[in-house]
Amino acid sequence: MDAERQVENMSQIVQCVSCDGYGWIDDEGKAVDCDWCGGIGYVYRNERGLDRRIPTADLPYVSEELEALEAQRLRQLGYTGEARKPWEQAIRRQRSNSNDS
Ligand SMILES: [Zn+2]
Questions:
Q1: How far apart are the CA of 92 and the centre of ligand 1, in A?
Q2: pLDDT digits (tens, 9 = 90+) for 51-90
Q3: How many angstroms separate the alpha carbon of residue 49 from the centre of ligand 1?
Q4: What is the DSSP string of the chain?
Q5: Range of 26's domain?
Q6: What is the Å distance from ligand 1's center to 24 Cα?
C-alpha cells in the first residue's frame, strides 16, 4: 500500500461511474448530459474515494489528462477516431478570453 501513496491534496481523475466516461446517458432513447460529471465523462476522486464533479474552470488544467484518459477509453472500445468533449470548447473559450498568442 505504501508504494501506492499519491501526492496529498491531489485528487485523481477517474471515469464517471454514472456514464462510464461517455458524458451522457441514454434516457429512454434520448442522449442527455450526465448529471454526475456534467457531461465531462470524468470526475475527481479524492483519497477517501469520494467523487466530485470537475469544475469547468479546472478543465484547461486537466485537459491533457482527460484527453489521455479518453484516448485510452476509446482504444479499449476499439475506436480510433478523435474525441470531442466539452473541455475542448472550454479551453478554446478560455484562450480567446485571455492572452492569445
Ligand atoms: Zn457521467
A1: 22
A2: 999 999 999 999 999 999 999 998 888 876 665 676 676 6
A3: 16
A4: -GGG---TT-PEEEE-TTTTTSSEEEETTEEEE-TTTTTSSEEEE-TTS-EEEPPGGGHHHHHHHHHHHHHHHHHHHT--S----HHHHHHHHHHHHS---
A5: 2-97
A6: 6
